[in-house]
Amino acid sequence: MSKTYKLILCHTFLLVCTTTLLFPVSAKVPAVIVFGDSSVDTGNNNGIKTLLKSDFAPYGRDFEGGRPTGRFCNGRVPSDFISEYFGLKKTVPAYLDPNYGISDFATGVVFASAGTGYDNTTAAVLNVMPFWKEVELYKEYQQRLQAYVGEQKANEIITKSVYLVSIGTNDFLENYYLLPTTRTKFTVQQFQDHLVQAAREFVETMYTLGARKISLSGILPMGCLPLERTINFMAMQECNEEYNNVALEFNGKMEKLVKQLNGEFLGLRVVLSNPYYIIKKMIRHPSLYGIEVTDEACCGTGLFEMSYLCGIDSSLSCPDADKYMFWDSFHPTEKANQIISEHLFKTLLYKFVH
To answer: What's the CATH number for 26-353?
Structure first.
């Protein structure tokens, strides 16, 4: 056997091993089931009466077919990428999307609603689906799944699936820092504790419903969102470090919660998918990721637009979203979502395969 042939075999073997690590066999994780807000909503808000929608151009312009789906992005969101990394489908459908049925949902489904939060008041701000309603829809899903594949198979899917939860930023930016009534009721530390308790109650409920693999989310550096930079006049539109510090503090409390939950519930595996540091690194060193603009968004002027404001004049949007960290003033681009998702999968979520 020649050296060249041996070298080819060696490279092929390494490629197969690497690919298997990043995209493992899907049978080990039968489905990805998603809860949360606009960071992972794939179209549920299309079907409810709210002003917070994204089922119009320029949203979805880089999605397959160039169509807006209700994702708050130019393309795919983290729930899509993570599903693919688990060896499942490349896009995860929204539960309220009439174009999909239980046969589609059996391998992955999204209950997330853009604009929602752990606190019920957060959902009320923009009249979106409260977090408890997502859980109620999941219970309905379980019944439909049992009717579709049988009780035994349904229970296997429910137990072995990975449950992704991405939520919390709206609780601070749309609720605590926006509503005087909330700040009158809580100090920021008390509000953090209130949200952590809501996260605990969610996990406890999901555990009783059969979930065993749960990924809770940390909060991104919310003070660096383009909208928060725009209104941070006193600091010359730099990141609002007060908000970032609150995010760090909250994430620390969530880490403690995860440790507690893993010690209290038999067979439960909870992880904290914390995007804070990878996003902060991307903002500080964008060239490492092929990104050029981090302080402004792609759509509109890049300073404050989101949802319908992005749709007023699509021609204002940047020509190449891949050069931008943020798609609108609140949400990352598809490229940023992919980088963040791959990082979280390689460093943490891959453990759910074993």
So the answer is: 3.40.50.1110
CB atoms within 10 A of CB 354: 7
Among 291, 272, 275, 267, which residue's Cα sits nearest to residue 341?
Answer: 275
Catalytic residue positions, numbered: 38, 328, 331
Give residue 320's region: left, alpha or beta (phi > 0; psi -120 to 50). beta
pLDDT at 15: 37
Residue 45 phi/psi, 5° resolution?
-70, -15
- Residue ranges of alpha helices (H) inside the chain are 3-22, 78-85, 102-105, 120-125, 131-149, 151-160, 169-170, 180-185, 188-208, 226-230, 241-264, 276-284, 308-311, 334-347
Any idea where the domains of the chain sit in the sequence?
26-353
Tell me the per-residue pLDDT of 69-105, one tens digit each, with 9 for 90 and over: 999 999 999 999 999 999 999 999 999 999 999 999 9
